[in-house]
UniProtKB/TrEMBL annotation:
<keyword id="KW-0808">Transferase</keyword>
<keyword id="KW-1003">Cell membrane</keyword>
<comment type="similarity">
    <text>Belongs to the CDP-glycerol glycerophosphotransferase family.</text>
</comment>
<dbReference type="InterPro" id="IPR007554">
    <property type="entry name" value="Glycerophosphate_synth"/>
</dbReference>
<keyword id="KW-0472">Membrane</keyword>
<protein>
    <submittedName>
        <fullName>CDP-glycerol--glycerophosphate glycerophosphotransferase</fullName>
    </submittedName>
</protein>
<dbReference type="InterPro" id="IPR051612">
    <property type="entry name" value="Teichoic_Acid_Biosynth"/>
</dbReference>
<dbReference type="InterPro" id="IPR043148">
    <property type="entry name" value="TagF_C"/>
</dbReference>
<keyword id="KW-0777">Teichoic acid biosynthesis</keyword>
<dbReference type="InterPro" id="IPR043149">
    <property type="entry name" value="TagF_N"/>
</dbReference>
<dbReference type="Pfam" id="PF04464">
    <property type="entry name" value="Glyphos_transf"/>
</dbReference>
Length: 380
């Protein structure tokens, strides 16, 4: 029943999209985002460097917490009931930037005179997704074909470098030619003065003399995960001079509370990349975060007590934990021994610093300017 509703919706969207394609293309940049943090730097650059460029925002209310901060001419929370307006904006906007799967693309071919740009919300992957995920094996052939049509209509696909492009080709069934190694816009501010005030604010909130900061950032799971148990295990590190910051995936809401001193469940007021500015050690699992945090040389370990389960749903890359040069363990004693070893931490830092030169083709910190120059033919 649900699939039939989707088909009706897409049919209506296609009809109106085709009608609106008869109208002239307008000098408008449309941001159609789920998370937004890898797209917003493009918006901000246009706001300051191209003040006459009209910018419209379509966003997911669950994840984009402060849409007004984009300062766009139009702000539209995504709802299917608004399909006529969505179809109009997609059909008539010259530039379209996205950061996730957009189902409407399956019935909306890229119009001549327009450009679409996929600024994917991850800079690499340890998990299987798209056409390589376990879920893709159980959906019907028509649905699978719809997925492929969406991917083929992403337009250009921005990645950190060629190695990432090779990772993303199979999940999206895309040729290497569509990938552009411009970098990751959301990490640019790490390399300019913009990050200093954020870093100072977070240090004031969490940094304490003679204490180091451990950031625990687990990924999303389609089942009840091990986050609660892991936090309780990490608590013992507070007696060894560590402050624990817990940053849950945006789709996860903690079902428990902790009152222990030096354990903090951080809020969405700041992004994960903000908290990485004050992080001494990163503990994660199947997350893509290390593909970005390598730019800061943060020692990283993957703690995966549910490895066998996650290997089934949604699946992990066959070479896991490669290509990341990190230690992976299913036992918490392995985490403790690693954290207690200054030698292990130094080796991990050096490995991450070397990895960034492999993963990032271009000089980090200039992704936004490269993208703006490429698509708007003007430097910022």
């Amino acid at each position: 029943m649900r699939e039939s509703i989707v088909q009706i919706y897409l049919l209506l969207f296609r009809i109106f999209y085709r009608i609106f394609c008869l109208l002239p293309v307008k000098p408008v940049t449309l941001f159609w985002v789920t998370y937004g943090d890898n797209v917003k730097p493009i918006n901000d650059a246009l706001l300051t460097g191209f003040p006459k460029e009209k910018r419209y925002l379509i966003y997911d209310r669950k994840f984009v917490k402060y849409p007004e901060s984009w300062s766009t001419e139009r702000i539209l929370p995504y709802r299917r009931l608004r399909f006529i307006r969505l179809a109009y904006l997609l059909a008539t906007s010259k530039h379209v930037f996205i950061d996730n799967y957009i189902g409407e693309f399956s019935v909306a071919p890229i119009r001549k005179g327009t450009q679409r740009v996929q600024l994917w919300h991850a800079a690499g992957t340890l998990k299987k997704f798209g056409l390589t995920s376990a879920r893709s094996l159980i959906v019907s052939k028509p649905i699978l074909q719809r997925f492929k049509r969406v991917y083929q209509r992403y337009g250009d696909f921005i990645v950190p470098g060629e190695s990432c492009a090779e990772q993303f080709m199979a999940p999206h069934d895309l040729p290497k030619s569509v990938f552009k190694s411009f970098g990751v816009p959301r990490t640019d501010y790490w390399f300019n003065e913009q990050h200093e005030s954020i870093k100072e604010e977070l240090q004031s909130a969490y940094a304490r003399e003679n204490r180091r900061i451990l950031l625990y950032a687990p990924t999303y799971r389609e089942y009840n995960g091990m986050e609660g148990q892991t936090v309780r295990q990490l608590e013992q590190l507070t007696d060894r001079g560590w402050t624990i910051l817990v940053k849950l995936h945006p789709t996860v809401r903690t079902m428990f509370t902790h009152q222990k001193t030096h354990v903090h469940f951080v809020t969405d007021e700041f992004s994960i990349n903000d908290y990485l500015l004050i992080t001494d050690v990163l503990v994660t699992d199947y997350s893509s975060i290390p593909f970005e945090s390598c730019l800061l040389g943060i020692p990283t370990i993957l703690y995966t007590p549910d490895l066998d389960t996650y290997r089934q749903i949604p699946g992990i890359v066959d070479s896991y934990p490669d290509p990341l040069p990190v230690m992976s363990t299913t036992q918490f004693d392995g985490v403790l021994n690693w954290i207690d070893s200054d030698t292990a931490l130094q080796e991990s830092r050096r490995a991450m610093e070397q990895f960034k030169t492999l993963w990032y083709t271009e000089q980090p910190g200039q992704a936004t300017s490269r993208i703006i120059h490429h698509y708007y033919h003007k430097p910022i």
